[in-house]
Structure formats: C-alpha cells, structure tokens
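Quick one, tokens below:
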C-alpha cells in the first residue's frame, strides 16, 4: 500500500528536499506541498494524504493552529496523521501539538532514514515516541506547566495491569518491549493498549503519554 504524504513548510528548499527523499521510496508518494498552514489545510482536504509533515513555524497560519483545525473535527471528518517538524529539540509548540492529536515530531536535521521511517511509523498508526528527545520534551513541559484538568480519577477505570502498561508506554517502551518486561505475549499487550485508549478516549500513544504525565501517573525524571 502506498503512503500518501503532504509536506507543509515555508522553506522551498526544505520541501523540495523532503519531497525528493520521500518520492524515491517505492511505498511513499508526495501528493502536495504547502508553504503555510492555510494552504496545508486546503491541500489536506483536497488530497486526503495519509500523513502530513507539518512545520511548527509558518506564515499566515502556524503549524499548531493548522493541526488543531485539521484534527479538531468530528469523528466522521477526514483526519490524517500529523508529524510535526521542528528545528529545535525543545519547542513549546510541540507539547501542545501532541495534546491536540499530532502523532509525534521529528527534528529537521534528523538523518534521511529517520524521516522515511517516521512516515511509515505514523502511517501505521503508531506514535513517534521512541527517541529519547521526545520523552524528554514531554516530561519537561509536563513538569513545568500547570496541571491540566486531568486528575488521577481519569485513570480509575483502568485495571492494575492496564495502569502498569500505560506507565510503560509513557516511559517510551514499545509493545514488544512491554511484552518482554511483563513476560506476556505482544498480542496481549496490544489488546490492553486498545482497551486503555478506548477507556480514556485516547487517539494514540502520543496522547497516552501526555495523559500519563498530566494525571501524575508518571513524573519527570523517573527511571525506566
């Protein structure tokens, strides 16, 4: 199956470079390029790409607002996976982007293989949370920002095992790593993860991590 991608970035050379790299992959097709958030919205609704690479800082409408509008519709509306692009490894906008539904972020100076891998990971429905910089970013902003409305009561519907798995997700472990840690089948972990998402109304692992920090289940600086 071919993964369709829209690239939103205000720098023409960045768009061209990303497009050339992604179009060289047999399973990826770039269907559009946008120089600002408004055009990204227009082209997304026109082409329905599987993944949108969204720059954080753009003119007319920044990537955060574009992401909020793109992912903020009702369940029947088209919603792509959004991968935020940023020049900085700690960016105030990224944490908010994860809260509103973005599936992760990638530094613009990441190796080319990281970009292609990220597109495939996001398209497959996973969140790009493995890099330690992502965990560090989320932990930092969860620690320094005031608590959101979420409280420990949010987690009351979870079983002990589900709470344990959510904790491991928040610490950056994959399903396979969690299965190894708990000595259970990976499919069992996937089943638990699905139930966690359903009970807490979460879209993906990115939102699960944010939820775990905001409810106090995991705090910044804890060891894995």
């Amino acid at each position: 199956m071919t993964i369709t991608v829209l690239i939103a970035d205000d720098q023409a050379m960045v768009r061209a470079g990303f497009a050339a790299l992604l179009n060289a992959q047999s399973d990826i097709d770039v269907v559009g390029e946008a120089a600002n958030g408004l055009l990204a919205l227009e082209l997304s609704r026109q082409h329905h790409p599987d993944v949108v690479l969204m720059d954080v800082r753009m003119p007319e409408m920044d990537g955060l607002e574009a992401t909020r509008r793109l992912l903020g519709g009702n369940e029947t509306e088209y919603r792509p996976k959004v991968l935020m692009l940023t020049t900085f490894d700690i960016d105030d906008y990224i944490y908010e982007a994860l809260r509103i539904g973005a599936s992760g972020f990638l530094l613009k100076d990441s190796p080319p293989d990281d970009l292609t891998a990220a597109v495939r990971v996001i398209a497959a429905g996973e969140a790009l949370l493995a890099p330690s910089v992502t965990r560090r970013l989320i932990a930092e902003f969860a620690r320094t920002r005031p608590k959101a409305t979420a409280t420990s009561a949010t987690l009351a519907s979870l079983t002990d095992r589900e709470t344990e798995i959510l904790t491991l997700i928040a610490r950056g472990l994959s399903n396979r790593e969690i299965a190894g840690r708990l000595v259970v089948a990976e499919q069992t972990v996937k089943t638990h993860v699905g139930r966690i998402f359903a009970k807490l109304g979460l879209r993906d692992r990115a939102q699960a991590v944010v939820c775990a920090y905001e409810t106090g289940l995991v705090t910044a600086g804890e060891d894995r």
